[in-house]
Amino acid sequence: MKYIGILIIVLALVIGILPQFTDCQSQGRAITTADGKTVPMKCHWTAVAELILAVPLAAIGGMLFFSKRRETRLALSGLGALIGVFVVLIPTTLIGVCASNMMLCNNLMMPTLVLTGILVVAAGLVNGFLAYRSNETMA
Amino acid sequence: MNLTRLALRNIAGNSFRSWVVILCAMLVAGLALATTLVIRGAENSLNLAINRLGADIIVVPEGSETKVEGALLMSTPANVWMPDSVVAKIANVPGVGVVSPQLYLSSMENSPCCSVSNMFLVAYDPTTDFTVEPWLKQKIGSGLNLGESVGGTYVFVPEGEQAIKLYGYYLTLKANIEPTGTGLDQSLFMTFDTASDMARISKTMAVESLIIPENSISAALVRVSPGVNIHDVAVEIFREVPGVLPIESLNMFQAYRQQMNGLLRSNLIILTITWALSVLLIGLVFSMAANERRRELGVLRAMGATRVFVLRSLLMEAGILAVGGGGIGLILTGLVILLFRNLIVQSLGLPFLLPSIPSLITQAAGGLGLAILSVTLAALIPAYRISHTEPAVAMRE
Predict the structure, then answer these.
(1) Do B154 and A111 touch (CB under 8 A)?
(2) Which candidate in A100, A104, A126 is best for mutational testing of the B interface (most B CBs within 10 A)?
(3) Where are the domains of chain A?
(4) Prediction pTM value
(5) What residues have CB less than 8 Å from A138, skipping those under 6 apart?
(6) Phi/psi at B315 (nearest 5 deg)?
(7) Which residues pair with B99 in a beta bridge?
(8) Residues B104-132: tens digit of each pLDDT
């Protein structure tokens, strides 16, 4: 079950780091307003939100690696799966990415986040199931 | 203890060995599915594009066939022109039923109307058209009037707007064509009159004006008379109309087909190497496992288990691992292709359309079958050898 903790840490790193290099801001693209100011596109805010989610997710992965208590593992798995759901929802519905499928945020950042989010949810559920079935209660 | 429980216990008993077999099965099933999905997806997309064009022959200016194919298939900009007088010449060729001219106009970069950055504009003659108009009449009951358009699946009216603004001209979007996975998905169709009107308005209302050369067309779509050989008509057009190249619909997109064949060859080589290595590795893992468990299996035989039972328990173990690994591989591959299809299309330079659910299930079943076959085949020899060893010999060693 320690492997799932490591997997979640790796996924958290992908979720936190990849969007910082694939959003439109990192590609030098921004919206120019009528008064000449530049405003970041919405994919940039998705990248920021994902970074915010990646930090607790990595912490959950670390705690899963060290934790042995059944109840703790169950709670951490549930929380991890919940964060995984938000990892998917942020680029798809809550904030979104740019509409053009030629842009890196649309064709690389969003699918990677959806895939890693699904893997986080799956890892959380599997770990939760294993914890539920295990008899370990020692700290 | 029944066969399945015994196999499951053995799988749980050696997680490293189980993971190696699962990973191999994942690779084999995933690669098999990826190969068939991408190649079949591109093939379906090409065929759908040819059907959607609805022409037996497409006549293009000589030397511009690759550009026109690129425009139709991948929506790459194409500025190709030939005199409109060729339409009358083609119509006079024996065997030609209908000829309809089309204009391929400059695509828009980062247009706000589309979820794609390049949009391909196609203008057609509604009096002779046999591709867009019949579909429109079936779908919305009428053809397109001045200022109206029909778009591919990626074309939409921007949020809060009533019409699509192009070159300072407002176009009403009447309908969307079903996805083809090709450049047609990001194309906007309009009549010649609308295109001329747009070009006129663009001179005063747009930053960059739309230029349509006088008395020019980009291509002519030909439908041959019933019962006439398409190839013979194409040869006649080539002979009688100078400066043009007739492409038979079945020969369309040859460059893409060659690219697809190259991709298929590379994928098959990778799949074969992966398959061979996986079978070898699984065989090795099962040989090690069989050797490790000689005494255990000897005891099992001494307690009354038949050779067939031991053989079946080992093959059952292999089968469970193959189904588990293959299933995970198929799900992951399906997800990756579904999510990254736009990136795959751009990287490979090929059109791609996801297959229908029954076709997807068939392809996935093929991938799973290959994984089960590979794992079972690899496990068969060590399983057979250990099951046929005498119990006393097995326990002594």
Answers:
(1) no
(2) A100
(3) 2-133
(4) 0.74
(5) A68, A69
(6) -70, -35
(7) B222
(8) 887 656 655 555 556 788 899 989 988 88
